[in-house]
Amino acid sequence: MTDENETVVDLFGNEVYKLSRKRGRPAFKWTKENSNKVSMLLSAGWSNDRIAGCVLDPRTGKPICIKTLQRHFSRELSVRDTARDMFLAKQFLQVSKACDDGNVGAMRLMGQLMDKNDMMLAASRLRKTQGETGKGKPERLGKKEQAQRDAEEVTAGDRITGWADDLNPSSLN
Description:
By secondary structure, the protein is mainly alpha-helical. It contains eight helices and two strands; from the N terminus they run E-E-H-H-H-H-H-H-H-H. The protein has a two-stranded antiparallel sheet. Strand 1 and strand 2 form a beta hairpin. Helix 1 packs across helix 5 and helix 5 runs antiparallel to helix 6.
């Protein structure tokens, strides 16, 4: 076994201390606490930049960079699209367990969660039906285009009031 700081003689006869430990910043160590933090922030819709700024390296106490986040938390980042749904499912399960134990506050919360879930489902169905019919947002027109369309509607033939013939320039001939 060698000592921690072994002395070696270099080519010119000078003593050089050979260090047995690595130099530089220690490598990042994954922890369950940081994994849970990344998953929670993903379910809140945070970007990778914001998440990396909030995750601290337990050895140095400094925020990690985006590459470190991607390297050590790739499994958490891969479920970004479903993170919110997974969080809500876990919340439903925990509240359901509390309801089974007879917790009245949990029963009230379960009702609120169900109402919120029903509103989300109704909104998604509405978006789906609007997407199928193609009637998403109405077409926005400029001032001149809107005035032109209004004028065309008036001259097109308002049979009830009888003004169409008087306002149509072709009927004057």
